[in-house]
Write a structure and sequence with these properties.
Length: 551
């Protein structure tokens, strides 16, 4: 339960400290005193959107801190998940800086906003002034029924399947679109692949053919010069080989007279070997070189094919053409596999859909099992609130398609008068009826959810008199099992509180400031009397206030 609230530099609040008690606490105050400001500060601490505009003028930052008694609630696992130390008193603090950025802390450990909201949602529920209008919203109605039916586990199981189902459906759609596009391009890809494949390209072929063709085109010139070179090496009298032999024989005759380190004979012998090798290679090339018309035509045709393919595909090498060939081949393979992949995904979707149907039925059955009990409890409580003829129904009908919350359409039907069939809440309920209906539904939800604290911000809108007194009794009964804080403008409800707080506006300084104080018994009498008759209550009003408090 909420033990303490401290607010610094928030809107019209400079410094506010207030302790809260168990049971039913009521908060009253004149319009404009700042009740909604205090609620806004509390909401900020619990994870509401932060804005630098909320910071009090000339203050560097605003700080809101709450203390909750969590000794009776199992939040240890959640705090452990957040890596936050557990204490029986849990301190939540939110700071908003002048630049609009905010910082959140749980037990002085920094946490992110999602973690703050997750913890807060298990500690407190705040019913805002306008939340009753949500009773006509289909999603709100479904959420309320799920909270009462406690379908969290079944809903999680269903949603896991649903998310997988939608992901597979999206994948199937994408595959089908890609397949349709691919099949439209299949003939083109097939033609390009076959043309490249039939060309039987070899990676280094172009360079080799160009070199070979160049040699063929210059074969006569090559042969003439090779013949001259060969003659220079091998002419019998003056050839290089013969001259080197003469030199070698001459050196050997006088070698013993020469310095040993010169090695002339070895060096000449080595040159002679090189000359013979060069001559042999020249003769071999000479024998192999001839003007071959057939080979020339083949090389030219082959190169023309390669050049045309390169120009067509705007590439410069055979390697790039081979890459393109592989790319077209891969694309054709993918096209062939589309049918298989699509068939596989369809099978998976069918299996998931069967499981989804089962999960949806389990979820729907649990919801439907609460239709009658919820109807009976709501009608019984509405009777206590002065609506003995009220009829309430929870309509659960099946949708044709899966949704993120199942296959159910949940609708609250309501009638306040005799012999009138229930109609959708949004069409028939007045403001006062909506307030009472919301209180009843909230009481069911809170009882099931076992929340420590609920705050009602003017749940009494549109009611008065005896009905207000009965609503106060229900709030008082709720306070026996949990902490209830009610912001009210009705004396009948204010009188039911175990503790009474008054919000006031301090005008004594240069700037108006909001404050809150716990009232004594005598102060409560005066406050309730003022709520009955105005700022200067009559003796009759004071006696009426005392009577309300006694009852």
């Amino acid at each position: 339960m909420l033990r303490h609230l401290e607010v610094q530099n928030y809107a019209m609040i400079e410094n506010l400290n207030i302790d809260f008690q168990s049971g039913l606490s009521v908060i009253t105050g004149e319009t404009g005193a700042g009740k909604s400001i205090i609620l806004g500060a509390l909401g900020l601490a619990l994870g509401a959107r932060a804005d630098a505009k909320v910071i009090l003028s000339n203050a560097g930052k605003c700080v809101v801190e709450t203390v909750f008694d969590v000794s009776k609630y199992d939040i240890k696992p959640l705090l452990a998940e957040f890596e936050v130390d557990y204490f029986d008193e849990c301190i939540i603090r939110r700071e908003v800086l002048a630049n609009g950025k905010s910082r959140s802390f749980i037990n002085d450990t920094p946490v992110n906003l999602l973690q703050l909201k997750e913890l807060s949602s298990s500690l407190i529920d705040i019913h805002s002034q306008h939340e009753s209008l949500l009773l006509g919203n289909a999603n709100f109605q479904l959420n309320m029924l799920d909270l009462v039916a406690q379908t969290a586990c079944e809903l999680d199981s269903y949603k896991n399947l649903y998310n997988n189902y939608t992901a597979k459906k999206n994948l199937l759609k994408s595959l089908q679109e890609n397949a349709e596009k691919a099949f439209s391009e299949k003939d083109y890809a097939q033609f390009q692949f076959e043309q490249l494949f039939e060309a039987k390209l070899v990676e280094n072929e172009q360079v080799e053919l160009e070199n070979e063709l160049d040699l063929i085109n210059h074969s006569q010139e090559v042969c003439e010069n090779l013949t001259t070179a060969a003659a220079a090496f091998s002419t019998e009298q003056f050839g290089a080989e013969n001259q080197m032999n003469i030199a070698l024989n001459s050196i050997r005759k006088i070698e013993k007279y020469l310095p040993t380190e010169q090695h002339f004979s070895e060096r000449i012998h080595s040159l002679l070997i090189d000359i013979k090798d060069i001559n042999s290679e020249i003769e071999q090339i000479l024998n192999d070189t001839e003007f071959n018309v057939e080979r020339k035509n083949f090389a030219e045709e082959r190169l023309n094919l390669i050049y045309s393919l390169q120009q067509k595909h705007r590439v410069k090498t055979v390697a790039e053409l081979l890459d393109l060939q592989h790319s077209f081949e891969q694309k054709l393979s993918e096209i062939e596999n589309f049918d298989e992949e699509i068939s596989k995904i369809k099978t998976e979707i069918s299996e998931i859909e069967n499981n989804l149907k089962s999960a949806a039925k389990i979820l729907s059955d649990k919801r439907k099992s609460l239709q009658q009990p919820v109807t009976e409890q709501v009608e019984a409580t509405l009777a206590l609130l002065g609506m003995p003829n009220a009829k309430f129904e929870v309509s659960v009908t099946e949708l044709e398609n899966f949704t993120s919350n199942g296959t159910d359409k949940v609708e609250f039907l309501f009638s306040a008068n005799k012999n009138r069939s229930p109609q959708p809440v949004s069409q028939v309920a007045s403001g006062g009826e909506l307030s009472r209906l919301m209180l009843v539904i909230k009481s069911l939800v809170i009882k099931k959810a076992k929340l420590p604290t609920i705050i009602f911000d003017e749940i009494d809108t549109g009611i008065s008199g005896e009905i207000a007194k009965k609503m106060g009794m229900i709030l008082q009964q709720m306070g026996e099992n949990m902490q209830v804080i009610a912001i009210t403008h009705l004396p009948q409800i204010a009188a039911k509180g175990n503790v009474h707080y008054k919000v006031f506006k301090d005008e004594s300084g240069e700037v108006s400031k909001t404050g809150i104080a716990q009232l004594s018994e005598n102060e409560r009498v005066i406050e309730i009397a003022q709520m009955i008759s105005g700022s200067n209550p009559s003796e009759t009003a004071v006696n009426s206030a005392k009577e309300l408090l006694e009852k």
